[in-house]
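User: hey, got a sec? need Malate/lactate/ureidoglycolate dehydrogenase, LDH2 family folded
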Amino acid sequence: MSDESTEVVLSLDELFSLSRDVLMRHGASPAHADAISRVIVQGQRDECHSHGLYRLLGCVRSIRSGKVDPRAEPTLRDLAPGVLSVDANYGFSLLAFETGLPRLAEKARSQGLAAMAIKRCFHFSALWPEVEAIAALGLVGLAMNPSHSWVAPEGGKRPVFGTNPIAFAWPRPDGDPFVFDFATSAIARGDIELHAREGKPIPEHWAFDRDGAPTTDARAALDGAMRTFGGHKGSALAAMVELLAGALIGDLTSMESQAFDAGAGASPCHGELVIAIDPRRFLGDDAADGHARAERLFDAVTGQGARLPSQRRFEARARSERDGVRIPGALYRDVLAL
Ligand code: NDP
Ligand code: PYC
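Assistant: Yep! Here you go:
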């Protein structure tokens, strides 16, 4: 079906129920179905189309591949005063994140800074819901993970890195936090997939075809190599994510995750590194001053007409909470077929 132009409007509750029903029908435990559906609803609500309802298709494909355990229960381990790990036991990542978050926050409050290694998880989601959840607790959040080796290093043409997102959130005393969340590739792979689905060309700087030539054909890009954002800078950041959220935490790099998949077509399986920082431990009685300084910085950005990252999302959120979410007709039918 190609008529992505027709749309279906659903309330956030209707979307949550739809997602939950589909996941439970495919064998997900209620805990996984809830954790996944919460994030799928958040993605669609904030009009992050590559990481909203579209992801449900990948979740079901991953379950059908037999690689994921959709009922796995995460296990939490304290590794050091400021370090914990949550083993997803080959389930999806989101329940592992929810399981570890309270302990991560507790450690950050007592140590000033704490890190959580999520291990052996199937990962399909955007990271901003996680760093926003950390900021909602008054903490600074940072998260990153590898994916599959789809991205060529700057200067090369063969895939090595994942699309390796980095997300950051800074809590603000009033209103929404300062949040950014981006792939270290020129664009998330999910966006190229959506272009392929809709038969739309992509910008030439996003990817090479399998012969190493720049391409505007989304399918050729998916068969070839994606490019990093910002040339050598994105390339170095992508490598950092492989090291911090792969080698350092004892989990797979994107090349290893791709090999582990062995052509099954499941979501990438690897680890994730999540860091929480308590500003009060750094600033003590001067915490308000630190926040005031941050606000002056944000004012200097918005005061000249530039926007803060996530502002588009927060506006979309308000719209969706009021009017419901819009789902492309073809996507809606694909989901109903599940
Ligand atoms: P985008 O390039 O769409 O956006 C990146 C960030 O930049 C967002 O925070 C966005 O805010 C902000 N931004 C965009 N335009 C502007 C602007 N003009 N001024 C200021 N800020 C701006 O994201 P990507 O395609 O790189 O990634 C999309 C999603 O894919 C991410 O959420 C990421 O987590 C997810 N992803 C997940 C992976 C995984 O392995 N799980 C792998 C790769 C990506 P806003 O949203 O408000 O526009
Ligand atoms: O869009 O690049 C992506 C992606 C990879 C894993 C989940 N999303």
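Quick note: Residues 48, 50-51, 123, 125-128, 145, 147, 163, 165, 167, 180-183, 187-188, 191, 307, 309-313 surround NDP (ligand 1) (CB under 6 Å). Let me know if you need anything else on Malate/lactate/ureidoglycolate dehydrogenase, LDH2 family.
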